[in-house]
Amino acid sequence: MIIIPLVFSSIISGVTSMGDGKNLGRLGIKTMMYYLATSTLAILTGLTVVNLVKPGVGVDLGFSQTVEGLTEHAGSVKDIFYRIVPENIVDAMAQGAILPVIFFAILFGFFITRVEQKHRETLTHFFDALFEVMMKVTLFIIKFTPLGIFGIVSAEVHRNSDQLGSIAGSLAIYSLCVIVALLFHALVSLPIIVRVIGKARPYAHLKNMITPLLTAFSTSSSSATLPLTMEALENNSGVSNKISSFTLPLGATINMDGTALYECVAAMFIAQAYGIDLTFGQQALVVVTALLASIGAAGIPMAGLVMITVVLTAVGLPLEGIGLILAVDRILDMLRTSVNVWSDSCGAVTIARSENEITHVGL
Ligand code: ASP
Predict the structure, then answer these.
(1) Ligand 1 centre from 158 Cα, in Å?
(2) 268: how many CB neighbours lie within 10 A of its CB?
């Protein structure tokens, strides 16, 4: 209900406050570079862990299930780019597709700054006001999150309880690999970046982000969490709307450190389980396609699982391998989604600092 109007008004209000196109371009390039860099770092962390532990070696493939239909939704790399420019913006909004909405909002905001003053002022005020109202609606909804989280987590635990109890040995080790790598990235790598580059207190920031992180954990959706992430980042950590409105919606769809890491570990696990030794070149291909897959994955539950087909196809691994990891996907999805949201918020704090903003968590 609130995601599309919030993202739309927030981006337009953020872009118009940036003034000219040069600022926007600079911020855009900086944000993209930052996101690509941290996602790559996450993938390398996962690759290291999975190569050290080798959880897939000696897996009994009798366990494999087939997953018909799951691969249909995965797009090719080309599709990822096609998905950015909407054919029809109303349709894109109705579908809840965030990337085209971001694209249109940036374009719209940019051209607001290009029209004569009378119109510029009307539209700038209108979208600022719309954004303020959407933030108020968001704050109101946030009051219900404890209840929502309670309900959603109990239901998930109930649904997955038999599976969780019967995880076979290698699958448990595989899950542990993903979890350890995710924790390392979230609690060591990203805090170092926030501290050193962002000149901010990472753990104070972490505390500010508890509500969105728990919501990401329980909903397994970065997009559903987006309104809460924006609220916490602006009100608790003190990042301006100018920065958060640009970095967060973009981050929720294209910056998925947790997903990127997961794609890599999962693909390597599948290769190991099938007894396929990947060369250095093939592993490099896993890294690149895992990055692309994480960019292309939507911020919804299980999107990362579906996108693994991109990685598997690129390196020629059997798609049935997905059946192997299906049983533990939900719990790993919850964790990787929290890392996705956390990394977006770290990006916003770091970029705010690079734009000389004073935040509540600055050193
Ligand atoms: N559920 C994740 C997210 O919304 C995407 C994924 O499945 O990896 O961030």
Answers:
(1) 21
(2) 28
